[in-house]
């Protein structure tokens, strides 16, 4: 799976020039405690650039990094000149070719930026972030030349240049250092007027030895300054991403921060100076002279050596590396102790809260409380993002073909939006990704139905999310989607597709196993089939070649064709491993036949005995991924991001397979409903009683389990009357009594949680109506007594365990 093996470094600040043409008095490089810049060469050398590139590639290869992020920095990096910048970019591209995608950026003060540089950046794929502290009055407070001249007009010209249509895609955003003497609204308005793709507000660097200014002795001037901007930003509909606000909002939701100055994510950044020495984050220069130093360099040490430096190790430990005051703080998950450098105090070094602690606490709690005070909109039936009839049918636990078809269409729209979002993550230097995206835009016009069919593949969404989370590079998946579309549409195009450990993935169609160490393959559709070329090898595969035909390297997806239902047995997709249980490898022919036989029996039972579920299953369940179980057992799972897919180990009988199918497809349907509406407060961190679990469950897990067990209860309700043998009917009656009791209790737990939205109350209330209708159905006294007794014992034992754990 495309995930780096932690710990790893994926962000690199490469100093290409060590001097600056401005004399900003708040600069952490030249105006704070560290003076190491004085002894370093002005510009980085060719030898060092080549070695840096090789070291980064070595590290990326070892840790299987999908993307490497490099920022060209200084001083002022534009002082290095176009030739030096070109050499840096080309060395990085050379070393990382076929290893990782390269996201290459530059941070500049902008005063030297001109069309010549912009053309170079277009060619090399370098995005540009510009430092600007707001309007002219605010910017001139600190960002001046050494002789006192203003830099504002030149920076504005640079930003206007980046906003030209030809160069807009180079523009990475604006960086603004906070000065509480400046008018926050004036600063924000000036920055927003420049239409940046992102704004970064940075706290000025300070420590407990040199604390930040607090005019008039104000307790939280930095939080107050940022809050004034937050209120204006929020009232305007949040027109531009603001990294510090987005990070607080994300961490309050339990997600990762977007900045090292907040959150608990391990440090994954290292700085390479112009003399080739490795340093920790530049912000440490504000602590004491030599604070960022590691004593290591690119010629003698690897990046894994750097990771073993005590300063780096300390920042891999999450909450454990924080001081006691921070660990006990109610907002530590969002604040994360603040920027590491801001904790420094002579005597105990970094074992302190941030010098901005009061401000960070106030900022996070203010945003948290303001967000909590905004009531979630309660849509009327006419405003539901789905038809009223669909909502009611799904809430009752069912949903026919038309309802599920509309869920499918909504899920396809999500995948289309995710694909567009993935395109935004293609680095300018990622030529393969750019070519694949350009082909996909052509295919969207040429073969839209075929492209949609590929995008609807259940494992498209997990892949796209992994790209957006930085866990996978975009190029490979985009090329795979393009190739599968070309083959479906029988277009005479050739598509180059990166291989995954020697496997060509064609989503929804199958996979081709290739030998010879090739890194990619060329796929070409023809009249009679398609051709795969990799290295010196070539495979010709016929369109109608059998499932286990004459080309053993070709592993097409096997299809089960039942009456009114076609479902894939997906044992080929390298990305199918997103279920709770490990997946099986390619099924042997005999095992595949057993699957087909069991599916025939299971589908016959579902159509005959569970018609309320059958049409929905036929409309929405498009693939089953075989799972691996040590022993034959009822192992099954659904991935909330993989619409239309379930995973299952083949159980002992077709009847059990029918139960697994209707059970897991309930999870699939509910996940789609939750994509459309909020049924509960997602910020609820409480745990609740689940009558079928020994452990307490979060509200989402309890809702999912209860909804799935409606189908389980219904299955046994029917089987107590239709099973062939008397002992089977008796066992089914006991199961029915047990599951209706447990599901009814779970519904009451949900309704009493106090965390359901108005729509959630309606939805769960309808679930309860379905289950309560079954409570009146007669069962034997023995079955009823056993069900009630089992429920009482389970709850009593659960309470005892919970109390003992407190």
TrEMBL record:
Radical SAM core domain sequence ranges: 6-243
Keywords: Iron, Iron-sulfur, Metal-binding, S-adenosyl-L-methionine
Superkingdom classification of source: Bacteria
Xref: InterPro entries: AKG_HExxH, Aldolase_TIM, rSAM, rSAM_sf, rSAM_SPASM_FxsB, Sulphatase_maturase_rSAM
Any Pfam family the entry gives: Radical_SAM
Protein name: Radical SAM core domain-containing protein
Source organism (scientific name): Streptomyces violascens
